[in-house]
Amino acid sequence: MKIFGILPTALFAATASSPASAFCPTRQIASFGQSTSQLRGEAQTRGDFISTAAVAIVSTSIVIPLRPAYARGRATLEYAYDRYTPRIVEGGKFYKGQLYGAISKGDWKSIESATAEPPAKSKADRSLPDGGAAKRAALAGGFSDSRVLAAMDLFAATFSESSISPKTKAMKAEVEKLREVVQGLNKAARIALGEEKSGGGGLFGIGAKVTSKEELAKTVKDLYLKGGNAFNQYIFIANDGLPVQLAKLPFL
C-alpha cells in the first residue's frame, strides 16, 4: 500500500515516513499543502474555519504497474488530449481557487453553484443550432460533473483499446471518488441554504439527522480534502507513460 494525498503541511510532515513522494513530486504536494495550511491559519484567526477539520483524508491505493497505453494510436491520444485536458486543467484551477475560497468562507451559495449541473434540455434548446449545448454548458458549475468529471472520464477511456486497460480503470476509479465528493458538496450546500431538508438518511450521512451548519462545514472541508487527493491521484496516473510530446498535466 502506498499513500498519496494533499495533506496540510503540518500533517504531511507528520507522515514523512510514508512513501508519498513515490506518487507525486514533493514540490506539487507542498504547493497544495501550503494552500490548506494557510486556510487553517486563517481559520485560527477568524475562528470560523477548519478548527475541527485537522484530520486530512488520505487516499490509499495499491500501485499496479501501468504500461503505456496509447488509445488506439498516438494520433487518437493526441486528439483526446487536446479536446479534454483543457477542461481538466481549468477544473483543477477552479478547485484550488474559487471552490477553496467558497469553502473557506462558508459561502454556501457559491459551493452550490460550483457543483451544480445544468438544467435538463428544454424544447427551446432543441430549436437552437447546437441543441442548446453552449447555453447549458455555460450554466454548469466550475467543478461540476458536466464540465469537469465527464471530461476526466472521456480522457481516461482513451487509454483503452478493445478491452478496458488497468490505466483506464485506475483513472475512472478516482473520477468516481470525485463524483461522490461533488454530490456531497452540493447536497451539504443545499441543506445549509434550506433548499433541502436534513433528516431521513443521505449521501455520506449528510441529512441522516438534523444537521447544524457547523457539522456541514466540517463535512465539506473533509470532502474537499478527499476530492483533492482523488484529483491528484488521477493526474499522477494520467501522466505515467504519457508521450514526451504531450505536456504533463499539473497537480493541484
Automatic annotation (TrEMBL):
Entry keywords, A to Z: Signal
Protein name: Uncharacterized protein
UniProt signal peptide: 1-22
Superkingdom per UniProt: Eukaryota
